[in-house]
Amino acid sequence: MLRRSLVAHAVLLFAAVALPLAAAQPWPVCGSSAGTYTAGSTYETNLENLAVTLRANASSSPTLFASGALGSAPDTVYGLLLCRGDLSSSDCADCGTNVWRDAGPTCNRTKDAILVYNQCYAQFSDRGDFLAATNNSGGVSRLISGTNISSTDVAGYDRAVTELLNATVRYAVENSTKLFATGQRVGNDTGFSNIYSMAQCSPDLSPAQCRSCLDGLVGQWWKTFPLNGQGARVAGPRCYLRSELGPFYTGSPMVRLPVKADGLTPASAPAPDVVPAITGGKNNSGSKILVIILPIVSVAIIIAVISLCIWNARKKRRLAKAERHPGTDTNEDFESVKSTLLSLASLQVATDNFHESNKIGEGGFGAVYKGILHGQEVAVKRMAKGSNQGLEELKNELVLVAKLHHRNLVRLVGFCLDEGERLLIYEYMSNKSLDTFLFEQKRQLDWAVRFKIIEGIARGLQYLHQDSQKKIVHRDMKASNILLDADMNPKIGDFGLARLFGQDQTREVTSRIAGTFGYMPPEYVLRGQYSTKSDVFSFGILVIEIVTGQRRNSGPYLSEQNDEDILSTVWRHWEEGAIAEMIDHSLGRNYSETEVLKCVNIGLLCVQQNPVDRPTMADVMILLNSDTTCTMPALAPRPAYLIDGTSGYSQTCPACSDGAMRRRSSVVHAVLLLLVAAAALPLAAAQPWPVCGTGGNYTAGSTYESNLLRLASTLRANASASPTLFASGVRGAGRDAVYGLLLCRGDMSPSDCFDCGTRVGDDVAQACNGTKDAILVYNQCYAQFSDSGDFLAATNNSGAYSLLISGTNITSADVAGYDRAVTELLSATVRYAVENSTRLFATGQRVGADPGFRNIYSMAQCSPDLSPAQCRSCLDGLVGQWWTGFLFPRNGEGARVAGPRCYLRSELGSGFYTGAPMVLLRADGLSPASASAPAPDVVPATTLVKKNSASKILVIALPVVAVAIVAAISLCMWTLRKKSRSAKAEHLSELDASEDLESVKSTLLTLGSLQVATDNFDESKKLGEGGFGAVYKGLLFGQEVAVKRMAKGSNQGLEELKNELVLVAKLHHKNLVRLVGFCLEDGERLLVYEYMPNKSLDTFLFDAEQRRQLDWATRFRIIEGVARGLQYLHQDSQKKIVHRDMKASNVLLDADLNPKIGDFGLARLFGQDQTREVTNHIVGTFGYMAPEYVIRGQYSTKSDVFSFGILVLEIVTAKRNSGPYFAEQNEDLVNVVWRHWTEGNIVEMIDYSLDRNYPEAEVQKCVNIGLLCVQQNPVDRPTMADVMVLLNSDATSSLPAPMAHRPISLSDGSSGYSQTVTQLSPR
Q1: What is the pLDDT of residues 683-742, one digit of tens each?
Q2: Would you call 535 a catalytic residue per the annotation?
Q3: Which of 476, 494, 1141, 1247 is catalytic?
Q4: Against a cut of 0.70, is the pTM above it?
Q5: Any known ligand binding at 316?
Q6: Could you tell me if 847 and 922 are in contact, meaning their C-beta atoms sit under 8 angstroms apart?
């Protein structure tokens, strides 16, 4: 490993003070013979994308650490990012941004690169050895201060440093989950009276590995560095050690070592993740404690052993495949998939023990193998062992996929959790993923196949977003996650990053950005906001890729050939009318130009920057199924595709008050800007947020510029050395005089303040293009420069200042309550800053009940040269103008005012300051911060509780007693549970043990629980009665349910139950009633469904009073919902299903009158390619059954379409198809409606209770659809997919006309009501 050796023996770099200002950070170590990459290469793209991913993941991780790899050989890039353990997530993200900016140019595109900053450490390479090592065996960086101590006692200094480093290492290993600690040694020698230290390991090491790594550094410390050097550090990928004579970390030290102490003194304000040991004095009552404790312990151990033995025996008797479930939740979601649990042995046999020849792919969390399981080809996804990410992804994927059943979603076969293995088993997709065809084997994808893939993906996403029982956002839609079956039908896979939404929820925010660059929308990368519109954006990218056959570049989105990405190029060609040039050349001219244009249009609509401008997937389906492009919505202005990823802030430079500074006032008025989002900025330009004057300018190389840079350097040195982290001053005289100030955030360390000051020096000249008036705002500091010193003499922000807003809004509707909460918190934070802090600085947090703004965070700060009274006046002025003078949006998630005299900020995100808040404000009043790590000038009160021997006995005894009680209770519960399980499985043998039935066994309920739920099937709980039994309302585990009780001894009841169970187990749709469970005990056969408080549609529709609750909007929603449910049954579910009993009484209504199709007792499974079935067992309801079914016993999906047509006409007219009205006239509903339709007076048939409060065109459209559905010939009837397109079309002009001849409808003339038929011989 010659290359690694060269890196490891890199030249030592000296401290920043010896380097030019702009070159201070990073301190790089670059491989000299490691190989290089070229600009614009795939390796560089992977490096940039990996840097952005590491930044997002590290800043959102509690340990501030991330590692990973990106790309495939030979362009694979490995990397890690470790932020200093005392940083805020915001500061970690900022350091990660610097890494992204510097990673390539700093080492002149050398593949081996180490970048060391004061705030973070990053390393990249084309090999992953350093990630697998447990010590710094590869490249490391060694830095020394370059200056020596003033003391002559060098030996004493060396001992002091070694002692402090050892103590810090011990604390990091033994007391911190971050494997991080800071220390301080206070001594008598003035040459080294204070020594500061830091020790840190990458958190993926074990404590033992961390100790070994750090001990190795301590052992080599004085063999590596000068014995009298003031400071030094070793920065490596696995551990990091540092000592200095000046403070360089935030907060108080975790370890404080006095010069004459016998041992270690814990610091007074430890880090939140550190729990200091509690030690007491000598206790002479030890024997008494033993007398009390020993019997209790003995009893507890005996009970625990007995319980363990019984549990272990039961465990062995149960399925071997459920041997261990490490790390999984036993909640309802997980219970629902336990029936698919498989044994490890069966999967080892299926895959030849995971043989390499069976490996078909590898992803972020493990590998995928092909196997033969019970004669079926399967894909086995094997998570990498020991990966918590893999476990979390597996749990997420399991719980979500269990709720999903759709033909365009990959199907879960089972899972396994044995012997540390975590495996998911899916149906095998013989054609693998779309990307392999799209970007490698293009000629196999003709246009018809591509359009089928686009439509299938759209249908699958529509199901996830709108039609499944749970709204789901996939979050990782891309070509490699689209799997293709043998017929090239698409199925969406990989739900590891997917998230559940509430049905009414529109948006969620996360601090951990996960996904694939190039497919992620701007609002997600910038602000962590994701919604169904995020998937729409990804779908748009995918459509463009399918049409063009070109891969979307990731990260900064720049192609290797030019400065345009694929989307920009497609947009330009679209605007120029030359889109044909972008269509995949492998298609030749063998495609429908109209269809291709439609897809490009849809793709561009989906990638609009504003999520509101993107269509829903339901809209996309309508557009895809429309016949022309003339009705396509027009595109918005060119979408912005350049994604920043560092800041969600928009920037405003407000108008300033009138006063002596007329020029500056005019400057700010002139620069009044509101940038919609930072997305149009390059990544590195996110900070600073500048406010630049339009007045005087200076030239490069001028005396003014020289004075400006010197002043910036001076302010940096003075502010970082000041206890208040503030400095102001002037440099030069006359026309070349430069005035300036630098104010660092009050919770920063001097070292971090120094670093922010360095950035000010780097940016001040270029940020404002030589403008003399310049304000630079960073997350860590504020700087201002001018050729006039008025702003330094002011006591408020009377000159220019900066306003920043988050650009996003709260989710809560209680805007007034949010405004009050923010104002209350800001006022409390201001009060604390003025009254309790010598730095005139405070942070705050408000905890409330509204989930839309449960936690609000704040910061208030003044320049410390103001008096407390002046500070209060300045800050109070900001609070007073927060919602009025500054015109901040009243529902904005965050905002700040940054000025030269005072600074105020509020956010819904917690990551912009370090430590615990100084002010904690609860909804019911103000309370002190609970776990404070306050600024150095804030000294919280310390209390000491004296513990007597009795309290010590209780401390020891109570946990032991608790363990014994828990063990005893567990034993009792196990016994009861055993009896319960035995009872409820008593009659399971009545049903077939088929694969279908196995899938619902996890929903088996006890008869006792249902008797309790229904008051033993009390008559008062009865909701209704049908052909095979009664339905009761019940309360089961706090949830209202409907219990369908089959008539005892009825074979038909048993058959119907089995049929309904097997079918409903395969169905998950928001317009289908949901199965809760079933019971087979003591001859009872019960199905338990979710309870529908509004019962069935017929109870409203055919009741003169009740129907008034059904206005037209509700009726149309019911029609659309039923249609959507039937479309799922016929086309989108994994199994094609014909309901065979669609009628008003089988359409149930929830609390919001949303429809759900119920009663699947007569339903039948069809093969996907099957179109018709014949039976001699006619079942259904007269008036709803199709003619071909009654006459010839033929049924198909078109039978349900016929029934749906009847239902639509009933909903419009509020008349039964075979009611008394029609019996008297010897006509049924269909014929009467047909007659009025042909005579042009259909209005006479519309339900009079609607009182003309309906859109006539929409009602006529529904009547038209209804009549189309009841055509005599099934071929003439539309499919339910056609019906959905017709329902969502804007006009009736494009609707096909019903056949000219009179429709035929069979009804039972002998009865005034619809009649259920159980058997009728066909003619």
Answers
A1: 333 678 888 876 688 998 899 999 999 999 999 989 988 889 999 999 998 889 999 999
A2: no
A3: 476
A4: no
A5: no
A6: yes
